Amino acid sequence: MGTLDGKVALVSGSGRGIGRAIAEKLAGQGARVVVNDLDADPAKEAVAAIEAAGGTAVACAGSVTEDGFAERFVTTAVDEFGGVDIIVNNAGYTWDSVVQKMSDDQWDAILDVHLKAPFRILRAAQPVISAAVKQARAAGTEVPCRKVVNISSIAGTGGNAGQANYSAGKAGVIGLTKALSKEWGRYNVTVNAVAFGLIRTRLTEVPAGGDGKIDIAGRQLAVGVNPELLDAMERGIPLGRAGTPADAAGAVYLLCIPESDYVSGQVVICGGGFNA
User: Fold this and answer.
1) Can you give the three-state secondary structure of 23-87, one letter per residue?
2) Catalytic residue check, 166
3) What's the pTM?
4) What's the rounded mean pLDDT across residues 43-71?
């Protein structure tokens, strides 16, 4: 028996990296997961891995910033699994620059993916959650505790040079989290955020022999942190190392289990003791 048996989880940006680790963690504890990725192949690969491990998942590929995506994401959960119990707003990327060189497009793209997309997904989920709660109350049955975990960053709690757009978006996620925790308490939904510190993913690693770029909606964006800088950053972490996707997934999982049913409106920093 898993701690999340019978639950249905939406995890955005879960075809790779931290998101995939979160999806696999929740599925490993019995949740049925809707996996999302910008690209169809990583989403399908994540679903296959979950199924191979004995879990249940379905893919919903596409950009979280596209009009209509949020409704399609939520509808997939309802059509495939009958409802929504857990929402993890994880999808995102960085597009860095100092403020005087940052374009409006650069600002808008990062705010769209990190703040507008979670807002849209939560807005789309509200009618489904509200209807389920009303049905349970009308039947005189217990309303289960549902969970929202929004992903923020220590850039959102303390700022980061060269990331005015990302820092603003992740700070906004915290405001969204605190507001929704007050709105959705009446539905017995807890709404929390996890703010990640340095987590090693494809966005932090400079690929061997690669050009250090990823394609996001036709844009070739630089990724990777200079190895010497990465080592210096790790030395500043009290635990002495960067986090792994599994570490990140563990922090999210803590806010999805029954033991956290009375924790809401909080920001948990998953940073190995480093707090910006």
Assistant:
1) HHHHHHCCCEEEECCCCHHHHHHHHHHHHHCCCEEEECCCCCCCCCHHHHHHHHHHHHHCCCCEE
2) yes
3) 0.95
4) 98
